[in-house]
Write a structure and sequence with these properties.
Layout lengths: L6 H6 L6 H10 L9 H12 L3 E6 L4 E4 L1 H6 L13 H4 L4 H8 L11 E5 L4 E11 L5 E10 L1 H44 L3 H19 L7 E3 L1 H15 L4 E8 L6 E3 L1 H19 L2 E13 L12 E10 L6 H4 L17 H11 L3 E7 L3 E9 L9
Parallel strand pairs: 7-9
Antiparallel strand pairs: 1-2, 1-5, 3-4, 4-5, 6-8, 9-10, 10-12, 11-12
C-alpha cells in the first residue's frame, strides 16, 4: 500500500497564494479610515457653499464642523486641525460666541433669530442656536447658524439718524424763520450803539444760515468731477476761513485717479470743512496730509459672488494735532455737538449729509496726542439723481 502523505505534509506542499490575490483579500478588509459616501460629500458641499456661517459642536464641547463663511465672519483662518478641538480654544477671540455655545445645553429656550454684537471684531451677527438630538431625543451636540448683519445694522442706523434729523429739521426750520428777520434790525441797532452787538448778531446770523442749510434737502447737480481740483480748491477755501500760518499741507493724488459723478460745489464744501477743522486743531503749527486713491466698496456678504465690488475713490484728510478722545468720536457727527467755544455743531453733520447724498461713507479715527484721520469713500458712479 503506497504511503499516504500526512496532513502536515499536505499543508507544507500547498501552493503559495499569489500576491495579487492577497492584495485583493486585503482590500476587502474593513478600512480604518472613514470613507465619504456620495451623500456625505453632497452634504459637505452644501455646508461649505452656504452664505451663512455654520458651526456645530459635540456634547463634549469639541468642534464637529465650521464652514468657510463662519471662519470669515469670526476673522479666523480655516484649518482642518480645528475639528475635534474645544470650541473655547478655537474661538478664544470671540468670547460672546463662547458664551452662546456654552449655554446650548443649559437653557430651556434657545435663542432664535437673535442679534449679537462681537465687540472685538466690531461686527453684528444674527443667529439661531439649535440642539442636535439622536434617535432617543437626547442632545448630542449643538449647531449655530449665523449671518453677518454689520452692513445691515449700519444702514438701519443711518435711516434712524435720518428720521431723527427730519424731525429736528422741522423744528429748526421754524426756529430759524422766527429768528432771521429780527436779527437784521438787531445788527443795525447794535452798530449804531457801537457795542459788541454786531459781532454777536453776525454769529447768530451765521448759526441760523448754517441751520437752514442743514435742514434743507441736499440738491445735487451731478457731473463728472475731478477730485484733484476739488481738493485744491478746498485747501484754498479753508485758508480763507481759518488762518493757516505755519501748518504744512501735503496733497497726494493717485496717478490716473478716475473722475467721479458728484456735485463739485458740495464736495468742495465737505473737504473745506475737514481741512478748516484740521487748521483749527493744529492752531498754527503741524502737518495735514491729504490723499486720494482708488478703492472698492464691497457688496453685502449675502450677495457675494452675485454683485461685484463698486469702484470708488478714498480721500483721507489726516492731521497730527491733539486728536479726539474715543468717547467723542462716536458723537462727532451728531447735530449741535461741538467742542468749540463758538462752534455751531452743524459743520460735520452737514458734511455727513452731503456724503450720504453721494451714496458715500465717512469714517473718523483719532488718538489723543497723535492726530485725527477722516476717511471719505465716494463711488465712482453714483446712483443719486439731481435731487436727494
Amino acid at each position: 500500500m503506497p504511503d499516504t502523505p500526512s496532513r502536515s505534509d499536505a499543508r507544507v506542499r500547498r501552493r503559495p497564494t499569489p500576491p495579487s490575490a492577497a492584495a485583493a483579500r486585503s482590500d476587502r478588509r474593513p478600512s480604518l479610515e472613514p470613507r465619504l459616501t456620495p451623500d456625505d460629500r453632497f452634504f459637505s458641499h452644501v455646508v461649505s457653499s452656504m452664505r451663512n456661517g455654520v458651526i456645530a459642536v459635540r456634547r463634549d464641547g469639541t468642534i464637529a464642523l465650521m464652514n468657510n463663511e463662519g471662519y470669515r465672519i469670526f476673522g479666523l483662518t480655516p484649518s482642518a486641525t480645528d475639528l475635534g478641538r474645544p470650541f473655547a480654544d478655537v474661538l478664544s477671540a470671540c468670547p460672546e460666541i463662547i458664551r452662546v455655545l456654552s449655554g446650548a445645553f443649559e437653557l430651556s429656550h434657545l435663542p432664535n433669530r437673535a442679534e449679537l454684537r462681537l465687540k472685538e471684531l466690531d461686527r453684528v451677527i444674527g443667529y439661531t442656536l439649535s440642539q442636535v438630538k439622536d434617535e432617543t431625543a437626547a442632545p448630542v451636540g449643538a449647531v449655530l447658524f449665523f449671518k453677518d448683519l454689520t452692513q445691515v445694522e449700519q444702514l438701519e442706523e443711518r435711516e434712524r439718524l435720518r428720521d431723527r434729523l427730519a424731525s429736528l429739521g422741522e423744528m429748526a426750520a421754524g426756529i430759524a424763520h422766527e429768528l432771521k428777520n429780527p436779527l437784521a434790525g438787531i445788527e443795525v441797532m447794535a452798530g449804531l450803539l457801537r457795542r459788541q452787538g454786531p459781532d454777536s448778531a453776525k454769529l447768530a446770523n451765521a448759526i441760523v444760515v448754517e441751520m437752514l442749510e442743514f435742514v434743507r434737502p441736499v440738491r445735487l447737480q451731478v457731473e463728472r468731477t475731478d477730485l484733484a481740483d476739488v481738493l485744491q480748491q478746498s485747501v484754498t477755501m479753508a485758508e480763507s476761513k481759518v488762518p493757516r500760518r505755519d501748518v504744512i499741507v501735503r496733497t497726494t493724488v493717485e496717478a490716473g485717479l478716475p473722475m467721479i459723478e458728484g456735485d463739485h460745489h458740495q464736495l468742495a464744501q465737505v473737504f473745506t470743512n475737514l481741512v478748516a477743522n484740521a487748521f483749527e486743531a493744529l492752531d498754527g503749527t503741524g502737518r495735514i496730509t491729504i490723499s486720494a486713491a482708488t478703492t472698492a466698496i464691497e457688496a453685502d456678504p449675502a450677495f457675494a459672488g452675485l454683485h461685484p465690488a463698486t469702484p470708488a475713490v478714498l480721500v483721507e484728510v489726516a492731521d497730527d494735532g491733539p486728536g479726539i478722545s474715543a468717547d467723542l468720536t462716536d458723537r462727532i457727527f451728531n447735530p449741535f455737538f461741538t467742542t468749540k467755544v463758538t462752534g455751531t455743531g452743524l459743520g460735520l453733520a452737514i458734511v455727513r449729509k452731503i456724503v450720504d447724498a453721494h451714496d458715500g461713507r465717512i469714517d473718523v479715527s483719532s488718538t489723543p496726542d497723535s492726530g485725527t484721520r477722516f476717511r471719505v469713500t465716494l463711488p465712482v458712479t453714483s446712483t443719486s439723481g439731481w435731487f436727494k
